[in-house]
Amino acid sequence: xxxxxxxxxxxxxxxxxxxxxxxxxxxxxxxxxxxxxxxxxxxxxxxxxxxxxxxxxxxxxxxxxxxxxxxxxxxxxxxxxxxxxxxxxxxxxxxxxxxxxxxxxxxxxxxxxxxxxxxxxxxxxxxxxxxxxxxxxxxxxxxxxxxxxxxxxxxxxxxxxxxxxxxxxxxxxxxxxxxxxxxxxxxxxxxxxxxxxxxxxxxxxxxxxxxxxxxxxxxxxxxxxxxxxxxxxxxxxxxxxxxxxxxxxxxxxxxxxxxxxxxxxxxxxxxxxxxxxxxxxxxxxxxxxxxxxxxxxxxxxxxxxxxxxxxxxxxxxxxxxxxxxxxxxxxxxxxxxxxx
Length: 340
What we know:
Layout: H1 3-16, E1 28-30, E2 47-49, E3 52-54, E4 58-60, H2 68-84, E5 87-89, H3 94-98, E6 117-122, H4 131-141, E7 145-150, H5 152-157, H6 168-178, E8 183-187, H7 194-202, E9 207-209, H8 218-224, H9 240-247, E10 253-257, H10 263-271, E11 276-279, H11 281-313, H12 318-322, E12 326-328, H13 330-337
Parallel strand pairs: 4-5, 4-11, 5-6, 6-7, 7-8, 8-9, 9-10, 10-11
Antiparallel strand pairs: 1-12, 2-3
Helix pairs in contact: 2-11, 10-11
């Protein structure tokens, strides 16, 4: 099956079907401060990531590419990212590397001249693509960094998926050492364990996007595409809060994604160790229903809610928020107690 056809099917399923997993952010309880010694109007949500200034600790996570529908989506969302001073990530660039004509569906730098923009390639594709090809694809649209996504669950359940993940860490290390762009590793919805975090850190990556369960479930997406997949597999993976706890104090910048839906989720993610957060599916759905203004309104709501939470825990900036005390309950507490 052509990549562009599969990408179109993915878009349609994500927009029209229920594809999200169980969210565990309710298991994190931030400790309320009834005596905040701060002025709400002066709360600061700015941060830096990979040398770029962000007004919010947020990126529009990898969505799509390689189709005509993707061109409009990427352009509009990147333009919004520029306006709101948040980051933006493209979907997998494999399609544009294999078919140069599809390159325009990824090009957004003209509408987002100062935005932090991530390119994207699958780790399983590193063994079959030359580093020069990947670098040229990043050059083409002026990327700031490269996401290398880890998606064994999606590949093994995808019709015609790539099943050879041998030497993945070796290939990752080679790319990190030779490519001129900073590399950040990301999962695509099943989380990253401490063991994997240590391996990719040793490869020299600049950050890890945990992308845990709670957001788009790609095993379910592939099942909805017609894959013969058992329902027993649909709950596999590491919830996003648990993945953050697994990687906390690893000594590398973390991105929290996978089920982030509101400003409270963002605040909780930062207290668990994230530097910034990523959101994907809500942006896609809101854009489809409400257009550009709907997406801008959503970002404004995220910012307002994040600031209110910061006020209620007594944090005037993100560094203070990261040091906020929290109480764990339920499944996340049980997971934390069993981390070695």
